[in-house]
Specification:
The complex is a heterodimer of chains A (512) and B (346). Chain A is of the alpha/beta class and 512 residues long. Chain A has 4 domains: 165 residues, Rossmann fold, CATH 3.40.50; 51 residues, no CATH class; 162 residues, P-loop containing nucleotide triphosphate hydrolases (Rossmann fold, 3-Layer(aba) Sandwich); 70 residues, no CATH class. Helices cover 33% and strands 25% of the residues of chain A. Chain A contains 18 helices and 22 strands. In chain A, strands 6-9-10-3-11-12 form a 6-stranded mixed sheet, with helices on both faces. The radius of gyration of chain A is 25 Å and the shape is globular. The two termini of chain A are 34 Å apart. The termini of chain B are close together. Chain B has a single domain, classed as Orthogonal Bundle (ABC transporter involved in vitamin B12 uptake, BtuC). Chain B is built from 13 helices and 2 strands; from the N terminus they run ααααααββααααααα. By secondary structure, chain B is mainly alpha-helical. The radius of gyration of chain B is 22 Å and the shape is globular. Classes of the chains: A alpha/beta (512), B mainly alpha (346).
């Protein structure tokens, strides 16, 4: 596989694909501002940045899922507009997602050729040719895959290979890989790298998105760094270093939006001891004390939410234990967790935290029904009084308490979920991405609320992908990398650089 | 690392082989079950193996097997068609009515009329499902009653008996070629053609893709709504066609003809290995499922088990078939999950 050109930057001057000053907003959130990236034929180009830097927005624009509000996409120097994924596909752009969506019931060969199967007389599908061509593609990619087996049960690595074969069969010239290695084993990563070399040799441009900087250096010729939806720098790999890249990724001013007051730290409320769930996280241990906010940081997919779900008993841990106030929780019992005083505000409030079509008051009362009920009935008046009390305390902005929860803004929905749990007077509150998709003003209110709770002696475990939030709110930061604790920092030691390094799996000091 | 991978791969490979084997050998399994049922019953009463008895098994199963073709097309796309029993009834009554008014009507024309009527019903189903995006369960439950209502108001308390039907038509139901009933031949041809088409033509494969992963099917540029519409139209057409044959077999029709067929058909389809949530299964399997259920029903009569038990048996077999499929997919899930831990360990 290694040839003379493997690691030299190609110098074909004309770029194959350019995302030119593209911007995209979702409501008040500016996901991409003046995004810029340039791909050349035959190069593997890395796109790196923190969570929320705008990488996935770029991918979605290339995929034809989103249209930029302003700016252009140029292919071979000509402007192209993608309204649908089919158009992007037809233009020769293929996206390989971290977890591809195949047809599990169809054979591997059919998955490669679906909708474009080779035909013989009478418009019949030429099954033999399809199988042969699929086998040929896998051979080109240097991968052993049986074209006849069904796709169900394929490893994620093999599913990606099927998608890449599909891209090859459609003569894709730009192949975007969105975090392809996150779920792969080392041998699978090496195989994928060889496949990328093959794609380059065919003159394709590969856009490689990864959090793993070592992979970026091993595979790519150039790298583009994004931060806060903006293009920061594009460099040849030979001219940069891990240290430079990390600085480019995090180098932003810390605003003082998140003032957590120093609360008196009390006894240990939560003790997580060598908690393990096969395939998700391993040997995770930490403590949270009363009055303390502990942040669980790490990259998407590092296992943070999974740890929270296991603590609350939604998923059963395979090994290890959880103690609350010195008492061990029975495994896989959210009821026991609630009785022990844990409140859990999940990441996806639309799916898991709220019943969208029912009223605000009902949603708030949902976790306190036992306290409100009289003779197996829930008196309406009691429910309403309960809800209006909490609405006042949390400064909820709403029309009427009988309006459906779906009528509220994201921030106010989050307040309902918080109210629902706070009404139970939890001694430990787990909040997963408490301010995701919430406007700045409400964000500050949620932060103030969490800070107040800590002052009242509640122990808080906060999962957050936003570094400023972590740094502003947390008394301690625990960083996960691929399901293991890769760093723990007190408030005074926690810096963006330190957390990012731990989150990328780099030992402290390696890049500093 | 590769050492750590090996046991995981082995575990996954075995899980995958099980799933694969189940899919591949489902039809073979039904054939084996058929042999066991027929053989076992014949031990009790050797007349079960006589030509007449076997002919009856085939004719009796053929209507359900025909309906199962259309139902398979629909279920494979992750939809369901509950209206086929009503369509069959309406078509059968219309056929009877045609013969009452035009005793010398051509059989070919009558077959075309029945199929046409079914097509109209199927088009209505398909249009509501695809244009208004209403779940097919609801749509076809509605048309089940609407079509039955039309049938009832048309027929009133009327019954069309065999004496009103021309002999040539009656012989369609009873006639044989080389000992094989016409109905059986028609069914076998239809099942063969449909099985081949589902395997060999792009639109057929599209149906599987749609049921397997609707979102991905859309992204792959498959005209999802058009295909689903066509599946419903064909299901209706086949039910209308089967209605004419039904009348030729049973010889008399009133407004209740075909009531409850939909569930018998769905049971046959599922027992025959068509996944109830779409994406896999074959027309051949569904037809074999119909044959198996009909054979079990007949064998219970022969060995003097109350016919009430027949329904309980069919139900139990249905649950067994679905539970089996579920079990296989649940067995696969943990093998997939262990995958990531291999990396974490390495």
């Amino acid at each position: 596989m290694p040839d003379a050109t493997a690691n030299a930057a190609p110098d074909s001057a004309a770029p194959l694909l350019v995302v030119d000053h593209a911007s995209k907003s979702f409501g008040a959130v500016r996901a991409l501002e003046d995004g810029w990236i340039e791909l050349r034929s035959g190069e593997a180009h890395a796109l790196v940045g923190e969570n929320g830097a705008g990488k996935s927005t770029v991918v979605k624009i290339l995929a034809g899922v989103h249209r930029p509000d302003s700016g252009r996409v140029l292919l071979d120097g000509a402007e192209v507009v993608f309204d649908t994924t089919a158009q992007s596909h037809a233009a020769g752009i293929a996206i390989i997602f971290q977890e591809p969506t195949l047809f599990p019931d169809l054979s591997v060969a059919e998955n490669v050729f679906i909708g474009a199967q080779p035909l013989r007389s009478g418009r019949r599908i030429d099954v033999r040719r399809m199988r042969r061509e699929a086998a040929g593609l896998f051979e080109q990619l240097g991968v052993k895959l049986d074209p006849d087996r069904i796709a169900r049960g394929l490893s994620i690595a093999d599913q990606q290979i099927v998608e890449i074969a599909k891209a090859l069969s459609a003569d894709a010239r730009v192949i975007v890989m969105d975090e392809p290695t996150a779920a792969l084993t080392q041998t699978e990563v090496e195989r994928l790298f060889r496949v990328v070399e093959t794609l380059r040799a065919r003159g394709a441009a590969v856009l490689f998105i990864s959090h793993r900087l070592d992979e970026v250096f091993a595979l790519c010729q150039r790298v583009t760094v994004m931060r806060d939806g903006r293009h920061v720098v594009t460099d040849a790999i030979a001219d940069t270093s891990t240290q430079k890249l990390i600085h480019a990724m995090v180098g932003r001013d810390l605003d003082a939006l998140f003032p957590k007051e120093v609360a008196e730290v009390g006894e240990t409320v939560l003790k997580v001891d060598r908690l393990t769930r096969e395939g998700e996280f391993t040997d995770v241990s930490f403590e949270v004390r009363a009055g303390e906010i502990v942040a669980l940081a790490g990259l998407v997919g590092a296992g943070r939410s999974e740890v929270a779900r296991a603590i609350f008993g939604i998923d059963r841990a395979d090994a290890g234990g959880v103690e609350v106030h010195g008492r061990r929780l029975p495994p896989a019992s959210p009821n026991a967790a609630m009785d022990a005083g844990i409140g859990f505000v999940p990441e996806d409030r639309r799916q898991q935290g709220l019943v969208m079509p029912i009223s605000i008051e009902r949603n708030m009362a949902l976790a306190s029904l036992q306290r409100l009920q009289r003779f197996f009935l829930i008196p309406r008046l009691a429910e309403r009084r309960f809800a209006s009390d909490w609405a006042k305390r949390l400064q909820l902005r709403y029309g009427r308490l009988s309006d459906p929860a779906s009528s509220l803004s994201g921030g106010n929905q989050q307040k309902i979920v918080l109210a629902k749990w706070l009404a139970r007077r939890p001694t430990l509150l787990i909040v997963d991405e408490p301010t995701r998709g919430i406007d700045v003003g409400t964000k500050a209110e949620v932060h103030r609320l969490l800070s107040d709770l800590a002052n009242e002696g509640v122990a808080i475990l906060m999962i957050s992908s936003e570094l400023p939030e972590v740094l502003g709110m947390a008394d301690r930061v625990i960083v996960l990398f691929e399901g293991r604790v890769s760093g723990e920092f007190a408030r005074s030691e926690a810096t963006e650089l330190a957390i990012m390094q731990a989150a990328a799996g780099l030992a402290t000091g390696e890049a500093a | 690392m590769s050492a750590a991978d090996a046991p995981v791969d082995a575990q996954r490979a075995s899980a995958y082989r099980v799933a694969e084997a189940v899919v591949r050998f489902r039809e073979l399994g039904i054939v084996l079950a058929l042999i066991v049922v027929i053989g076992g019953t014949a031990l009790d009463n050797h007349l079960f193996l006589s030509g007449t008895s076997l002919q009856q098994l085939l004719s009796g199963a053929s209507i359900v097997a025909l309906l199962a073709i259309g139902e398979t097309l629909v279920i494979v796309t992750r939809n369901v068609d509950l209206s086929i029993g009503s369509i069959l009834g309406l078509s059968a009554y219309m056929t009877g009515d045609i013969f009452v008014h035009y005793p010398h009507a051509s059989i070919v024309l009558v077959l075309l009329a029945g199929a046409g009527l079914g097509l109209v019903c199927g088009v209505v189903n398909g249009a509501i499902v695809t244009l208004f995006r209403v779940p097919s369960l609801v749509v076809t439950l509605g048309t089940l009653y609407v079509i039955r209502g039309i049938d009832a108001s048309w027929a009133g308390g009327n019954q069309v008996g065999a004496f009103s039907l021309p002999d040539s038509f009656n012989s369609l139901g009873y006639g044989k070629v080389l000992g094989v009933p016409y109905l059986g031949i028609v069914t076998i041809i239809c099942v063969g053609v449909a099985t081949y088409a589902m395997r060999t033509f792009r639109p057929g494969r599209d149906l599987y893709a749609i049921g397997s992963n609707p979102e991905a099917a859309h992204l792959a540029g498959i005209p999802v709504q058009r295909r689903v519409f066509a599946a419903f139209a064909l299901s209706g057409l086949i039910a209308g066609f089967a209605g004419v044959l039904w009348l030729s077999l049973y010889g008399s029709v009133d407004s209740t003809a075909g009531t409850g067929y939909e569930f018998e058909v769905i049971a046959a389809v599922v027992v025959g290995g068509v996944a109830i949530f779409g994406g896999s299964g074959s027309v051949l399997g569904a037809a074999l499922g119909a044959l198996l259920l009909n054979t079990i029903a007949n064998s219970l009569v022969v060995i003097n088990v109350s016919s009430y038990w027949d329904q309980a048996f069919q139900g139990a077999l249905l649950i067994l078939a679905i539970a089996f499929d579920r079990l296989i997919s649940l067995r696969l899930a943990p093998a997939l999950r262990t995958r990531r831990s291999a990396r974490a360990a390495g």
